[in-house]
Amino acid sequence: MDEQDEDRRRFETLAVTHGEGSPTRSSAEDVVTPIHLTTTYAVDGLDPEGDLESLDPDAGEYLYSRLSNQTRNTLEHRLAALSGGEGALAFASGSAAIAAAMTATLRPGDHVVAFDDLYGGTKTMLSRLFAERFDVEVSYVDARDPENVAEAMRPGTELVWMESPTNPLMHLCDIEAIADIAHDGEATFGVDNTFMSPYFQRPLDLGADLVVHSTTKFINGHSDSVGGALVTDDEALLDEIGFLQRVGFGNMLSPFDSYLVLRGVRTLPLRMERHEENALAIAEFLEADDRVEHVHYPGLESHPQHDLARRQTSGFGGVLSFELDTGIEGVEAFLGALREFPLAVSLGGVESLIEHPASMTHSPLTREERARIGITDSLLRMSVGIEHVDDLLADLERGLDALDGIETASPPGSSD
Ligand code: PLP
């Protein structure tokens, strides 16, 4: 198949087979790229001009598995195709991909503009690694309004870093508008696309320079592999980040995990459709119940950025958050009654999970910081799985019934 035919293939087809049958695997008979566990490769003979940096795995050039590996290479091709980019790198975690992107784009004295509601680990990375040790300054802005991003740009802004939607409040940013702002300021624009996956949102098509995914979440989808990926169209950036990954940090995804993620990504389209169908049904169910104060889900018409979600994504995803109309005693009773939603951090697996941001994912923030962003003690975040929706709804009803007799948070007669 020539490259043009390949380009025309649709997402669902690419997810299943892209990269299979290329020189990246050892045997033409394999239908599925196997797990290449070898750490080293016997070479044909001496190459006096040999250069580690110019090994071309696509031409079957392998020397040492940290530098390139067939299973990882197939995964990287697959993720690049799915994300609409030219090249991809598979990392040992989403955090490793983010750290490599930032290390490649920032120098001491540089400035970053970032969404104020970023994943907590990324915020900690920016403050404890880049700000404290490398003298990088970060301006956090409410990027729901692109004007706030534009106002924060200044000479020396080298990186603009966004997520859309954010965690746990499901705030969106206009990726297209922010790409223009970043490029006017000659900054690199990176987007963490973990929540949407490339099936629902493709930031490179919207103008981003690079996209990262924690493959730990939807892309692998089975809660059994920690990994990450970075995809870009910018060859120079890919080379620089590749150097940092292979030679600087050695933080690539293992062959076994690459195999797991390849296995997971084949069903990404099917899973994402079901995650969304179930999440929308649950969001509507919760929104209609008086015992729930507020539901944050971009698929609801009540979400203040519902129109932006419709414009920028092809789906609303499988994560939502909501506030119970009760205090911490009610939250505990609700969680205690659930059977289908284990209390656990992380998201994006086939199984549903629920977590309490104030005491779990966002507990490193002070109460005041949480209050400023809008994370109350009554807020719960849910990763909706692919189970039968009626079982999930029945479970939530059971949880809400456990609130009977427990004091509500809002005064009688008030509504939101
Ligand atoms: N980005 C987002 C949006 C996340 O939610 C997470 C983890 O929860 C990460 C990045 C980090 O990914 P990993 O845990 O694979 O390092």
Quick overview:
The protein has helices spanning 3-8, 11-17, 70-83, 94-105, 120-134, 146-152, 175-184, 197-200, 235-249, 255-265, 268-287, 306-312, 328-337, 367-373, 389-401; strands at residues 87-91, 111-115, 137-141, 157-163, 188-192, 210-214, 228-232, 292-296, 319-324, 353-355, 379-383. With 416 residues, it is an alpha/beta fold. The structure holds pyridoxal-5'-phosphate (PLP).
Task: Tell me what you see in this structure.
By secondary structure, the chain is α/β, with parallel strands linked by helices. It has 15 helices and eleven strands. It has helices at 3-8, 11-17, 70-83, 94-105, 120-134, 146-152, 175-184, 197-200, 235-249, 255-265, 268-287, 306-312, 328-337, 367-373, 389-401, and strands at residues 87-91, 111-115, 137-141, 157-163, 188-192, 210-214, 228-232, 292-296, 319-324, 353-355, 379-383. Helix 2 packs antiparallel against helix 3, helix 4 (94-105) crosses helix 9 (235-249) and helix 13 (328-337) packs across helix 15. The radius of gyration is 22 Å and the shape is globular. The structure holds pyridoxal-5'-phosphate. Pyridoxal-5'-phosphate (PLP) binds at residues 93-95, 119, 121, 163, 167, 192, 194-195, 214, 216, 226, 228. Residues 93-95, 119, 121, 163, 167, 192, 194-195, 214, 216, 226, 228 line the site of pyridoxal-5'-phosphate.
